[in-house]
Amino acid sequence: YPSGLMPGNPMFAKAKDYFSYLDCLGGLVAEGEERADVLVMIPYREAARVMGIGEKTNEIDGLYSDTLRALGSARINYHLSDDGIADDYGAVEGDRLRIGKRLYDRVLYFGEELRGKLKEYSEGGGKLYFVRKDNLKETVSDLEEKSFLRCDNPDVDVSEYFLGETPFYIVRNTRCTEQ
Question: Are the C-beta atoms of 40 and 68 separated by less than 8 Å?
Fold first, then answer.
């Protein structure tokens, strides 16, 4: 679809500013890094190691899906990893877990026992949530209270990106109707 910003359009005078904005936004998303203090450990490797494939794995799959939906509904930014990646590429720095360039303050874990970097993270004072069906609501509520980007308007979504050390905020209207 053409943009409709042709010389006859009354908004044509603003087109340069608009396209400049889109250029900056595209550069920020491509070159920047989204901040997410919450790391969700994908449970499948641990589940297969402990239980094998079967009914219990299906149960964990349901809990994992419910967790991601709950985080999304609460608008909590998160990244995904698993214990293998944490062990191979992670580092514990005080009470935070580093994977790649990102540092995480809070980690959601679906397993039963801690090993490797997750055990080191927990013993170092890191905030580790053992996600279970009976505590999912409280876990998400606790994460929501500590969320660094909080917005009470359900039609607004906020993300924080970093370009080097400089923070940028992207605010989106998630309501898909005219206001």
Answer: yes
Helix, strand, coil tally for the chain in percent (to 5) = 40, 25, 35
Mind listing the pLDDT tens digit for each residue in 108-165?
Answer: 998 777 888 999 999 999 999 998 888 888 888 888 766 655 556 666 666 777 777 7
85 φ, ψ (degrees, to nearest 5): -65, -40
Q: How far apart are the first and last CA of the chain?
A: 23
Helix axes 55-73, 136-145, angle to 10 degrees: 30
User: In this structure, what DSSP letter does residue 42 have?
Assistant: P
Other Cβ atoms within 10 Å of 53 Cβ, number: 10
- Per-residue pLDDT, 132: 86
Q: Per-residue DSSP letters for 74-135?
A: TT--EEEE-HHHHHHHEEEETTEEEETTEEESEEEE--SS--HHHHHHHHTT-EEEE--TTT
